[in-house]
Amino acid sequence: MDNFxxxxxxxxxxxxxxxxxxxxxxxxxxxxxxxNIFAGNGxxxxxxxxxxxxxxxxxxxxxVNQRRRESMAxxxxxxxxxxxxxxxxxxxxxxxxxxxxxxxxxxxxxxxxRGKGHIRxxxxxxxxxxxxxx
Length: 134
Known about the structure:
Layout: H1 2-12, H2 20-39, H3 42-60, H4 64-78, H5 82-86, H6 88-95, E1 98-102, E2 109-113, E3 118-122, E4 129-133
Antiparallel strand pairs: 1-2, 3-4
């Protein structure tokens, strides 16, 4: 078993590995596979296989810089909906009373109260000040 583990570590050296976009593709593929068990649709099956192939391609890719750029673009697009995916109940509860702002300098997410008008926010991480309408 140690020999296999060593060979696998050797194979994965210099490769991308599992990142956020690859894991999201795998999770979506599993969800589609479960749906396809009940639906029995060939199109869903092909989409599931394509997602699995893309996730595996991302994990074994040696072009780490390109995969990192793709992952950063995915994370940027996913940013506003991330709280709704990770904890929908808390996101719904906070959506009415708080607004989430992103620091333009360090990209730290800051929670500010809604309904205060035009406010000046100081980032807790980098201490940069920026304006926002809450």
